[in-house]
Write the structure tokens for this entry.
Amino acid sequence: DVSGPKGLETFAEDDSVESVFSGLSIGANRHGLFACVNDVKITDPIHSNYDRLAETALRDATDVEGAIAAISDAVAAQPYWWGNLILADRRDLAAVEVRGQEVRVERAASRIFRTNHQPLFGETASPDGLRCSAPRFVSAQARLGEVRSVDDLKAMLASHDDGDTGICNHGVPLTTVYSYILQHKAGAQTLH
């Protein structure tokens, strides 16, 4: 009923450290609900991984409104790392920002984005002061309106609008590890 790649609770630089998987980084369910997450801030081991929220939304809901309710219930029950979720179904689109036990929601008609920032909490830069965050926000905001195809989206995700940063970063101070695109077309899902 739910499909997608699992997220990681460990971000080990050392390959000998075994990875711990948790929740879904991106996924869809049989009802046509799509969800994805992105990192804002890992706070402490007491808080849970935001990937679990994407999986909760997809398992417990059939649409965006139900997913927002499922996420809100989970966050009320226990604190989560700071993260953003994008939710979409055939009718609705929303961004859900999570900080500990707080949830803020933005609904959109056709396009919405998040990087490692939380504008609903008043931030368009990283809460950790990462200098790549503000340019990433500006780049995504400028490029999203031009996306018309999967190839356009891939180009956006690979962009370097500010030298070695933009949507894609190369060690400034973070390196982009991966980007996912989950496409639904003609009744089939494709993970790019």
Summary: The two ends are 20 Å apart (CA to CA). Strands lie at 2-3, 6-8, 21-24, 26-29, 34-41, 80-88, 93-100, 102-108, 182-185, 188-191.
